[in-house]
Design a protein that fits this description.
The protein has helices spanning about 5-25, 30-45, 50-55, 60-70, 95-120, 120-140, and strands at about 75-80, 90. The chain is mainly α and about 140 residues long. The protein has one domain: Orthogonal Bundle (Arc Repressor Mutant, subunit A), CATH 1.10.10.10.
Amino acid sequence: MFEECLYFNSNALARTVTRIWTEAYKPFDLSPPHAFMLRVILAKPGLMPRELATTLSLSRSTVTRFLDNLEKRHFLVRKMAAQDGREVHVYPTQKAIAIHEALDQTGEKLSKLMGELIGPNDLLNTVHTLRQFQKMLEAT
């Protein structure tokens, strides 16, 4: 019935992928979106929330909610910029740094698993196509 529906099929795929990623990040007590945000912060300490929003394709309000959650759980700290007290920079805590390598390894294992299940070329092509679709649809 919905074989040609982008909405239905992309959401069905997202639910399946979310289930797999949720299980993988469960040992860290992190949801996949929180884990991705923390991985970005660990890779680039000092980013501003607007930069996180752009990098993760999230709204500023969603980024703020995620930062609040991660800060409450002692994974990050927000510091005011020296030049402009209105700007905030985000830094990982020692708690986050302690799991940095394991988080990255989990991401690598998931990518490897998807490559094995789907095929490495099909996976790369699909991800590339999805990113193109997102850019095209956001431009409308």
